[in-house]
Design goal:
By secondary structure, the chain is mainly alpha-helical. The chain contains 25 helices and 7 strands. The strands form 2 sheets. It has a 5-stranded mixed β-sheet with strand order 4-3-5-7-6. Helix 2 packs parallel to helix 19 and helix 9 runs parallel beside helix 12. The termini are far apart.
């Protein structure tokens, strides 16, 4: 009976999707928040949850975070209201958004006579999508908004009746402005415009079926209130966000005006490498199918629509030298839909399934071994005391210090040597802030270290191991090393 099911492709797809989703859910609370990016966004949400300031997104108490609009922060902070401030609740909204997209994709595939689980399998075996299925990120919300916009546009053009899709286009656009700002227009409008130019009847359908005036009012009603309120409460946001984040970040290599991160120097065109590596194995397969059917692409409205949706983003970012692999996330959905479209043309479907399962299987095996392996055996195999030693997170160090329980009255200082206050937020340890509930205080130079040591009371000092040489020997002699991991050393004043 079991052997027969294992030969059933639909059963394999169903089993794989459910298994991956369950295991990915387990990882949302089994793995601590990792520095810098994930822990930073979780801490930003924790600050919103604690301060109840739902307008000004903060990166520290009293310091605004102008780099991103609030949608993802609202989702995580709202989750904290339900489940408390922990890594699971910070990640859970992203997990739910991914499940929502899997459900939508499954319904679309079923209408084409394909397995409901096929889209989910393809998406969950893409590294980029799997990573974002349960990670604290601003990209997940934008991804959903883009997907809803594009699908709505297709539905409107190909359906003469007015449905909810006519309005979802504008709702998603408005929410997209709250997810990452006008970037959503840059990533959606050009491919839609080009696709309409391929057949002017489509352009006519857009103007006749989309409630444009009402739609604009919907977008304004959703997005404008927050943008108005944030500029009132935190003047300077508009200039930094629209000019800095949406022009200089992408077109100025090593943009030094970034208040919250370090400049990224990547070769022009690196986005295509990201497409291959983080959408493996599906992107090369899709490109091959599109090339093989290049003479008929324009004759098939659905394929041409998906191809433009897929290829516009990497084409746009080809000319940027300041990008991350996370930027390719919105391409995973049209890539999946193209795979679903061509699925019946593949003779060796089970071979494709085996190849697709390679990445999630490898990840889950590694994670299971790291989490479940006995400490003695882990030490023998790796040379490290335990898995927490090599994790880029201070969760376990702070738990050992009991900074939120028995030792909550003892000050906690993090040493972050910087030249001036303006770059402090680039160097901070955000897992330390999150897991200490904001108790962490930052020391930025030797003078401040000497000042707190002169207080002659019990203090905890957390110092990046690579920065130990930046602290004077005299200061280190006044402290005892009490714990450390691969990245961080913890001292206690004598």
């Amino acid at each position: 009976m079991i052997s027969k099911k294992l030969k059933d492709t639909n059963f394999i797809l169903c089993f794989s999707v459910i298994t991956i989703l369950i295991f990915r859910l387990i990882l949302t609370f089994a793995i601590p928040l990792l520095d810098k990016t994930e822990a930073r966004y979780a801490e930003i949400a924790r600050l919103m949850y604690e301060t109840k300031d739902w307008i000004v997104v903060q990166i520290d108490y009293g310091f605004p975070f102008w780099a991103k609009p609030p949608l993802s922060t609202w989702l995580s902070a709202g989750s904290f209201e339900i489940f408390g401030a922990n890594e699971f609740s910070a990640r859970f909204p992203s997990y739910l958004l991914s499940v929502l997209l899997l459900f939508i994709a499954g319904k679309l595939a079923k209408k084409e006579g394909k397995s409901f689980y096929l889209p989910g399998f393809i998406l969950l075996t893409m590294p980029e999508f799997l990573i974002h299925t349960g990670v604290v990120s601003t990209d997940s919300a934008l991804f959903v908004c883009i997907t809803i916009m594009m699908l709505s546009f297709w539905k409107v053009v190909n359906n003469t009746e007015k449905t909810i899709w006519n309005y979802l286009f504008f709702i998603a656009l408005g929410l997209g402005f709250l997810a990452k700002g006008p970037l959503i227009m840059v990533l959606t409008f050009p491919p839609l415009f080009v696709w309409c130019l391929l057949d002017l009847n489509r352009l006519k359908a857009v103007f006749s079926r989309l409630p444009i005036i009402l739609g604009i009012l919907i977008v304004v009603a959703i997005a404008l209130p927050w943008y108005y309120l944030i500029e009132q409460k935190s003047p300077g946001f508009t200039n930094y966000f629209f000019v800095g984040e949406h022009y200089k970040r992408f077109l100025v290599p090593g943009w030094n005006g970034d208040l919250y991160g370090n400049p990224k120097y990547v070769p022009m065109g690196i986005v295509w490498v990201y497409m291959i590596a983080f959408a493996f194995p599906w992107f090369p397969i899709v490109v091959y199918k599109l090339w093989k059917n290049r003479t008929t692409i324009l004759k098939n409205p659905w394929v041409s629509f998906l191809a433009l949706w897929l290829l516009w983003l990497p084409f746009f970012f080809t000319f940027s030298k300041n990008i991350l692999h996370t930027y390719i996330l919105p391409t995973t959905f049209p890539m999946m839909l193209l795979m679903v479209h061509y699925w019946n043309e593949f003779d060796s479907k089970k071979t494709l399934i085996r190849i697709g399962l390679f990445f999630p299987t490898a990840i889950f095996v590694i994670a299971s071994v790291a989490i479940l392996l006995p400490k003695d055996l882990f030490t023998k195999l790796s040379g490290y005391p335990d898995v927490s030693y090599i994790m880029n997170s201070d969760k376990y160090l702070l738990e050992k210090l009991k900074v939120n329980t028995e030792n909550k009255q003892i000050p906690l200082y993090y040493f972050v040597k910087v030249e001036n206050d303006s770059v402090v937020n680039k160097q901070k340890n955000y897992s330390g802030e999150f897991y200490s509930n904001g108790k962490e205080q930052v020391l930025i130079n030797q003078k401040e270290v000497d000042s707190v040591l002169s207080l002659n009371k019990k203090l905890f000092f957390v110092i990046p191991t690579r920065k130990l040489e930046q602290v004077s020997k005299e200061s280190l002699e006044k402290m005892n090393l009490i714990d450390h991991n691969n990245n961080t050393s913890v001292f206690e004043s004598k």
